[in-house]
Design a protein that fits this description.
The chain has 142 residues and is α+β, with helices and mostly antiparallel strands. It has 1 helix and 7 strands; from the N terminus they run αβββββββ. Strands 1-2-7 form a 3-stranded antiparallel β-sheet, with no helix packed on it. A hairpin with a 4-residue loop joins β4 and β5.
Length: 142
């Protein structure tokens, strides 16, 4: 009788240990599925919700339009403050290629080119880049 009881208790212990192992495997499997779903959602939102950066002119100054200036030179300085706004919260932008800006004043057929070197803009950041150029003729005849 003793032998039968020990065999029975061994079987019960094996079943209980197998049940515990199975329960822990199921628990880890559930946690893994939840974790993978969370990571998948994060990357889906990160890669599919990208916004284009906004570029605008924050300030423009043309020295020949300054009425208080008494300068009689034949040059005009144009200063531009460009505002680059990255509205992506999870992705930074690297402007690898130079940005070419063309300034044209059609009535007097004046064209100037400005090159802005590439730069990095962090996520959710606003960069102000100030550029200027000198034009050899006045924009307005006085």
């Amino acid at each position: 009788m003793l032998l039968k009881y020990s065999q029975y208790s061994t079987q019960v212990l094996e079943q209980e240990s197998l049940r515990k192992i199975l329960e822990s495997c199921i628990r880890y499997l559930r946690l893994s599925v939840i974790f993978l779903c969370g990571i998948s959602y994060y990357f889906t939102v990160l890669f599919l919700s990208r916004d284009r950066p906004t570029i605008s002119v924050a300030d423009l100054y043309v020295s020949s339009l300054n009425q208080t200036s008494t300068s009689l030179t034949n040059t005009t300085t144009i200063s531009i403050d460009l505002k680059f706004q990255n509205e992506n919260l999870g992705v930074g932008i690297y402007y690898e290629d130079p940005l070419n800006l063309t300034i044209t004043y059609i009535p007097q057929n004046i064209t100037n080119f400005i090159t802005i070197q590439g730069f990095y803009q962090g996520n959710g950041k606003v960069n102000h880049i100030q550029v200027s150029t000198v034009v050899q003729r006045h924009f307005l005849k006085r």
